[in-house]
Amino acid sequence: MRGARNRRVAGTALLATGLTLGLTSTSTAAPPQPVDAYTADFPAGLACDFPLRVSASSGRIVVKKFVDTSGHVVRVLQVGTGVAYTYTNLSTGKSVTTAAGGSAMRTVIQDGVETVTASGHNALILFPTDVPEGPSTTVYHGRVVYTIDLASGVFTLLSTSGSSVDMCAALA
User: Fold this and answer.
1) Domain ranges within the chain, ordered by starting residue
2) Cβ–Cβ < 8 Å for 54, 10
3) Which of 1, 6, 11, 96 has its CA 20 to 30 A from that of 34?
């Protein structure tokens, strides 16, 4: 996984919308692109109280970025399918795999903050520096809204709806 967001969000899609004036699309509707399989390991105390491995299967994703008149990306839309995740407690070897499901995320970027609205099948990993304080790894099937302060990298969970599974508890 690449970057702070990818190390924390195990979702298949990122969808960003907004009604800001002066936006233009940087591309037309593109065909789905492959998402490579990956594995990320988190030390104890970061994503769960034990060392956690998150492995993702390959899938497909459609990404569309929108820029303002100055050329800055202000919205990102991503929709994806087909990515299954396996969460493993590296201390015990216990694993849980979530089925491949679709998800969508919309991200609005403004004043150094990304506001993300995720729907469908997504997971959010919160570190001890986040709000609420982690470590936590939660799989959601529904809607999750959070912000990311781009300067500090702090995630702030704003709201959730639908069902959720505490993966740290499930793997303990």
Assistant:
1) 3-17+26-171
2) yes
3) 96
d(CA 26, CA 80): 19
Full DSSP string of 18-57 = ---TT-EESS-PPPPEEE--EEEEE-TTTSSSS-EEEEE-
Q: CA-CA distance, 16 to 33, in Å (whole number)?
A: 17
pTM: 0.81
- Kindly report, residue by residue over 48-84, the tens digit of the pLDDT: 999 999 999 888 889 999 999 999 999 999 998 878 8
Q: Is the peptide bond before 43 cis (omega within 30 degrees of 0)?
A: no
- Please, is 154 exposed, middle or buried when counting C-beta atoms within 10 Å of its C-beta (0-12, 13-18, 19+)? middle
